[in-house]
Amino acid sequence: MARTKEFDPDAALQAALELFWRRGYEATSMSDLVEHLGIGRASIYATFGSKHELYLRALDRYDRAGLPPIVRELSQPGPALPAVRAVVRRYATEAADEQLRRNGCMVTNAAAELAPHDPAAARHVERNWDQLETVLHSALVRAQAQGELPADRNPLTLARMLLVLLQGLRVVGKASADPARVRDAAEQALALLD
Fold first, then answer.
1. Going by C-beta distance under 8 Å and a sequence separation of 6 or more, which residues neighbour residue 83?
2. Which among 26, 86, 140, 169 could bridge 155 via Cys, Cβ 3.0 to 4.6 Å?
3. CB 64 within 8 A of CB 14
4. What is the number of alpha carbons within 13 Å of residue 54 lying toward its C-beta?
5. pTM flag (> 0.85)
6. Phi/psi at 48 (nearest 5 deg)?
7. Span 122-150, mean pLDDT?
8. Around Cβ 143, how many Cβ atoms within 10 Å?
């Protein structure tokens, strides 16, 4: 007779996400996961596989939770450029916020820590960036079609510049104690949309 799980796998995955997000992949040991999740090592392996598989599932969960609100915001009918500006400014505000900046962005963290040598993590990062670039590009195409963005601007290259800016805001915000640094960079980049 099979034993019933004595823990909620969804809650355990969320707890693992929070630990990996706060500490990073390498700094989180299986012992840390056992302690933080409150379940045995064998149960972690049986439910999630290896530490690496658990990390990738946590990264996927983070991505699924974080990207849809941005997609909705940038896909709303009406003027598109104010929505793009709002997203960039929100990233800058979050990057400068004392509480929010400590963890940074889990995708950005994965890009810096794992993507250079971990193909599976790199695929997760690229998928996130492709989706964000696509939604930014679509919003900028709409903005141009509605006369909000000058006709001589290239929506794809602007979307790519904004993607790089957003990721850079997360990195600089996590490490810098000067909130003006990220706010000034965001405003300078937004000036390119005029």
1. 73, 74, 76, 139
2. 140
3. no
4. 32
5. yes
6. -115, -10
7. 95
8. 22
